[in-house]
Write a structure and sequence with these properties.
It is built from 10 helices and 10 strands. It has 279 residues and is an alpha/beta fold. The radius of gyration is 18 Å and the shape is globular. It starts with a strand and ends with a helix.
Length: 279
């Protein structure tokens, strides 16, 4: 079994989303931290790497430290993914994680229409990705339901599969264990995160879902059956496990406290995952 930490687990450190620290970090900082934590791979969000400035350095770092790379992207069209596929090839990555985009809160008809569009676009993308030796992993990103994603998987290519995000099922109101069963052998990579009630962090803006608002938290600290999810993935033969922790941006904390909180959530999650998969 191998472990990676998604760069988004440090979104507050990077300052590329809804929190900007005084001294944002870069992908080189992330690589060194991943190495110190004993990670086997690097799972990089597209907002956290400058592919012009850092691609060669990251590639060489991974090779020198015997680490694999999984690159992230956004969208499902050739226009959106062509450069990312070529960047993945340059990095020596064998997998590109992406998502359709949008929000399941706009209704079932909208998600079905979104899935149909994504399927048509990916039919072209997958052929190009295969020519480069890159697998495309479509994430359940709160934009599509299980059945929508299954309809896209009818493309039935060895170069198209799923990034299984345990926490994102909260957006659609679906059970991650049902997703595990439905997706089975199409899972290429993971985003492991836990879910907790919004009132756990009352001073942080929650995420809206089809049910009640939620926050994400360190593995084992929420209400998802993470042990069953992880063991289920192991049973399916998944070898690379990526942690993606989205720590609550609690307004009551100082910057120093927030960044330490984010660091600690990652550390606790790594320990939790190792305990489950290694015993």
């Amino acid at each position: 079994m191998k472990i990676a930490i998604d760069t988004f687990s440090y979104y507050m450190h990077f300052g590329k989303h809804w929190y900007i620290p005084e001294n944002p970090v870069d992908v080189r900082w992330y690589c060194e931290v991943s190495k110190k934590l004993g990670a086997d791979g690097l799972h990089i969000d597209p907002y956290h790497i400058d592919l012009v400035k850092d691609a060669v350095w990251v590639r060489d770092f991974a090779r020198e430290n015997n680490m694999y790379i999984e690159l992230g992207a956004c969208g499902t069209s050739m226009d959106e993914l062509k450069m990312s596929i070529e960047a993945a090839e340059e990095l020596g990555a064998e997998l590109l994680r992406t998502f359709a985009g949008g929000d399941c809160l706009d209704g079932r008809k909208a998600t079905a229409k979104r899935a149909e569009k994504a399927k048509n676009q990916l039919s072209e993308v997958v052929s190009f990705a295969e020519s480069k030796g890159i697998k495309i992993a479509l994430e359940n990103h709160g934009d599509l339901l299980i059945n929508d994603i299954l309809s896209i998987m009818e493309l039935n290519s060895d170069y198209l599969g799923i990034c299984f995000d345990s926490g994102n099922f909260a957006f659609t109101g679906e059970d991650p264990l049902d997703g595990l069963k439905a997706f089975e052998n199409r899972i290429l990579c993971t985003h492991l995160k836990d879910v907790c009630r919004a009132d756990i962090f009352p001073e942080a803006k929650p995420f809206e879902t089809v049910n009640e608002p939620v926050h994400f938290c360190a593995l084992g600290e929420g209400y998802l059956p993470m042990d069953k999810i992880i063991n289920g993935l192991v049973g399916l033969g998944i070898e690379n496990f990526t942690i993606e922790i989205c720590s609550a941006c609690d307004k009551s904390m100082t910057e120093k406290e927030l960044l330490a909180f984010e660091d600690n959530n990652v550390l606790k999650s790594v320990k939790y995952l190792k305990k489950i998969i290694y015993g």
